[in-house]
Design a protein that fits this description.
Number of domains: 4
CATH topology of the largest domain: Phosphatase 2c, domain 1
CATH class of the largest domain: Alpha Beta
Radius of gyration: 28 Å
Distance between the termini: 54 Å
Structural class: alpha+beta
Number of helices: 20
Strand content: 25-35%
Shape: globular
Number of strands: 32
Helix content: 25-40%
Length: 704
């Protein structure tokens, strides 16, 4: 899964049109996403159909393309036939009721699924595709969303700026694509992710005999709650509904979601509970029946987004709408969302998912049109019946979010790879040549204009690492951001070098290049071009990259090269850590450090905590080994480990838990080799503090 595709769609009541942009990371691997954009749908010039299909499995690309080629035509043919049932009027003047429309959509999905099963050009036994689609009845200003799987539909609605204490966001959104002066856009879900995170879906799936487990549970790395199925059924019967449970928050933290498994073997392992195709998983309850929502558009509805789960792995619905609201052009909105999504995939995972996104800007909704139409099921209904139906539909609530958790941390595999690369890249320096020894946060202070601060605020609004900072922290971050003028051809980041800065594009074009593993950069271009960041003050577009460097001293996952002259803002990792050092996750570590370095002042301990780096380990990982040369102290943040120490004739084993320290002899006693071997007994997250960082803060570590 190495392609990235953007379907960028603009729609208005008068002149719908669309454009497409593709990015290719590896031409040898197929893009498993596909999409549909059809205007003049079912012979109605005011109707349209939009769909996003996210394939999976060996033939996932063929499955997504099959649905693209068959679902819209099946749907259009059935709608046209239903309209022609009554011969008293032309089909173009007839409209289908909500019930009839949803019945046609449901049957069309079922027929498409049936045809895929018997198609000889693909094998859907362990392959298939999710589908999120929108049928727009333009004359009625009505939309019907049909969802199969975990792609998603979201709508951004205008709300008064004085509601929900949203004045700060209002000023930013008011300059966005829909020109909602004095208002901000609030995100609402138009679909519900159909995954094992949903209690109702888990109960339905388990009735077939299927198991719901994560990969770690399958491999014996995490415990299995044998009574979980019974608990789910009781909660559902007692009104627990589709609510999320702790399962999602705990298991997915490292990118390990609950999956559907056969009771007879470790297959198919789908992370969704509905799909088109997946013939084997269908026997376990993974069905092609869509969930649907029909509603009339209102003047408050400004932005609609259909996107595959590649967008929503790390971004919330609100973050996506916030990004889109900055722009007057949905093409630029899509570029910005995909750039942010792609950057997060690079940071937190070893792979990048396919991404398909359709952004619809809604203009000029005329609410009087609905009353001028007739709606049919098999016969024309009268005006009073029509008004009653409209009244009922306006009372339909938008979907309450029941989505998988948005991840905000790196996966276990990514953490292991970072540790491996850090050892290999120990002698390398970032292209900035910044000296860590002489780092002085005050030397970075430079005042920003209100206009510059506004641009920076918009740039970091959707970024994960900035979501919990305080107002005073935000002001300090603006103050230490360094302005950088760059020239065409300049390398901002080189893949594999250790990064220490996060960048915001103020103006200019910057390409992302990735050199595949074990390949040499023979032509000096940095590998395959996979993405382009376009920054523009005029278009209010300010993408960012290098976010992971703020949290980890880790090698860069890609190279960034300036295609044009331009301007950047750079934020140093140590400046960011000093500013955010008082966050709660480090406060616990500060308490531990105070016990280790008893004679340090509070300020010195805070300085030390700003140098803590986080690392994740899996069950059986050796974190440090007795007799090996080392330079790092470890504090267990989450999880546990076994500490084994060998003397002349004896050996001792100690259980370590959260808050315990090991490797401190390297720093406190000045030893060069570890005194014990520590092995993780499960998933384990540790803070690491290097001897060199202690020396920067307090000089010689032997102060107590």
């Amino acid at each position: 899964m190495q392609y990235i595709i953007l379907c960028l769609t603009i729609i208005s009541c008068k002149s719908p049109h669309h454009s497409i942009l593709k990015y290719n990371q590896d031409a040898h691997k197929p893009n498993q996403d596909s999409y549909s954009v059809q205007h003049n749908f079912a012979n109605n010039h005011q109707d349209a159909f939009f769909g996003v299909y996210d394939g999976h499995g060996r033939d996932g690309d063929k499955c997504a393309q099959f649905v693209r080629d068959h679902l819209p035509s099946l749907l259009a043919k059935s709608m046209d036939k239903a309209r022609n049932n009554n011969t008293d009027q032309s089909s173009s003047s007839k409209e289908l009721s909500k019930e009839t429309t949803q019945e046609i959509i449901s049957k069309s999905h079922a027929e498409c699924n049936k045809r895929m099963h018997v198609n000889q050009a693909l094998d859907d036994s362990l392959s298939g595709t999710t589908s999120i689609s929108l049928y727009l009845h333009g004359k009625r200003n009505r939309i019907t969303i049909a969802n199969v799987g975990d792609s998603r539909a979201v709508i951004g609605r205008a709300t008064p700026s004085d509601n929900n204490n949203s004045s700060s966001n209002a000023s930013e959104s008011s300059s966005g694509g829909n020109k909602n002066k004095g208002s901000t856009l609030k995100a609402y879900a138009l679909s519900r992710d159909q995954t094992p995170y949903r209690r109702d879906e888990r109960v339905r799936i388990r009735k077939t005999g299927a198991r719901i487990l994560s990969l770690d549970q399958i491999e014996g790395l995490e415990p299995i709650d044998e009574e979980e199925g019974e608990k789910d059924e009781k909660l559902l019967l007692n009104g627990g509904g589709e609510s999320e449970i702790v399962l999602g928050e705990e298991i997915d933290e490292g990118g390990d979601p609950p999956r559907v498994w056969s009771p007879h073997g470790d297959y198919p392992g789908t992370a969704f509970t509905r799909s088109i195709g997946d013939a084997i998983a269908e026997e376990l309850g993974v069905i092609a029946q869509p969930e649907m929502l029909t509603r009339d558009l209102t003047p408050e509805d400004k932005i609609i987004v259909l996107a595959s789960d590649g967008v929503f792995e790390f971004l919330t619905n609100q973050s996506v709408v916030d990004i889109c609201a900055k722009f007057t052009d949905p093409l630029e909105a899509c570029r910005a969302v995909v750039a942010e999504s792609y950057e997060l995939w690079l940071q937190y995972e070893l792979r990048t998912d396919d991404i398909t996104m359709i952004c619809i800007f809604v203009d000029g909704v005329d609410t009087t049109q609905a009353l001028k139409s007739s709606i049919i099921t098999t016969e024309i209904v009268g005006p009073s019946e029509l008004e009653e139906e409209i009244k009922e539909e306006k009372e339909d609530d938008l979907v309450v979010c029941a989505s998988r958790p948005v991840r905000s941390g790196i996966s276990l595999e990514k953490s292991r790879e970072l540790q491996k690369q850090k050892k290999l890249a120990k002698s390398l320096q970032d292209v900035s040549n910044e000296s860590e020894e002489d780092f002085d946060i005050e030397s970075l202070y430079n005042e920003k204009t209100d206009e510059e601060k506004a641009r920076l605020a918009k740039a970091i609004r959707a970024s994960v690492v900035f979501q919990n900072i305080t107002d005073s922290q935000r002001e300090l971050i603006y103050k230490v951001m360094e302005p950088m003028a760059v020239k065409k051809g300049q390398w901002i980041i080189k893949q594999g070098t250790v990064g220490d800065r996060f960048y915001i594009v103020d103006d200019g074009s910057f390409e992302v290049r990735i050199l595949p593993e074990n390949q040499k950069d023979e032509d000096g271009k940095g590998g395959n071009r996979v993405h382009v960041y376009e920054g523009s003050r005029e278009n209010n577009s300010h993408p960012s990259f290098g976010e992971l460097a703020l949290m980890y001293s880790a090698p860069r996952a890609a190279s960034i090269i300036a295609q044009t002259d331009g301007h950047l803002w750079a934020l140093h990792r140590y400046a960011f850590k000093k500013i955010t050092g008082e966050q709660s996750s480090r406060k616990d570590a500060e308490k531990v450090l105070r016990k280790i370095f008893k004679d340090l002042t509070n300020d010195e301990v805070k300085d030390l905590s700003s140098f803590l780096c986080e690392a994740k380990f899996g069950k059986g990982d050796v974190i440090c080994r007795e007799g090996e040369v080392g330079d790092t102290l470890f504090i267990i943040q989450e999880g546990s480990g076994n500490c084994e120490s060998t003397q002349i004739d004896t050996s001792t084993t100690t259980n370590l838990t959260e808050g315990d320290v090991f490797g401190d002899e390297i720093i406190k006693e000045g030893k060069k080799k570890y005194a014990s071997t520590v092995t993780s007994t499960g998933k384990c997250t540790c803070f690491m503090l290097q001897k060199s960082d202690v020396k920067r803060v307090i000089g010689s570590p032997k102060r107590n």
